[in-house]
Design a protein that fits this description.
Blueprint: H1 2-15, E1 16-17, E2 20-21, H2 26-54, H3 60-78, H4 83-91, H5 99-123
Antiparallel strand pairs: 1-2
């Protein structure tokens, strides 16, 4: 669980610095970016394994159900009962608040979004 919190913290910290917001709702923006990225990665991995094992594709309805379910789960991790404040205070100043961890978290987010495009490219060619 700490893994998700550290990544959320670094995305949140892009928009919230020293009590000043560069975005009206940094907690929601960070949720949107991190939850969508992890969900894309998760759905892409499941769809890849499903395609390799059964030689079939996941239907759009099942993909949508999985995407919405994952976003709801991440809602409870990040936003329910103002968890974003707890996450920010927990990670701020800890050993996870370094530049190298920040770069790694940005790469993980980028890989999550890229996974959807990569899956589409690899398995939908004719």
């Amino acid at each position: 669980m700490l893994f998700f919190k550290v990544i959320y913290f670094h995305i949140y910290n892009l928009y919230y610095r020293d009590g000043h917001y560069t975005n009206d709702i940094p907690w929601l923006t960070a949720y949107g970016i991190t939850a969508s990225s992890f969900t894309c990665l998760l759905i892409s991995l499941i769809a890849t394994f499903y395609s390799v094992i059964t030689d079939l594709r996941i239907s759009k309805v099942n993909c949508l159900i999985g995407f919405i379910s994952s976003l709801v789960i991440f809602y409870f991790i990040y936003l329910n009962k103002s968890n974003y404040d707890n996450i920010y205070n927990q990670v701020k100043g800890s050993k996870w608040d370094t530049k190298s961890v920040r770069v790694i978290t940005y790469l993980i987010i980028a890989i999550g979004f890229a996974s959807a495009g990569l899956y589409s490219y690899l398995f939908n060619r004719k």
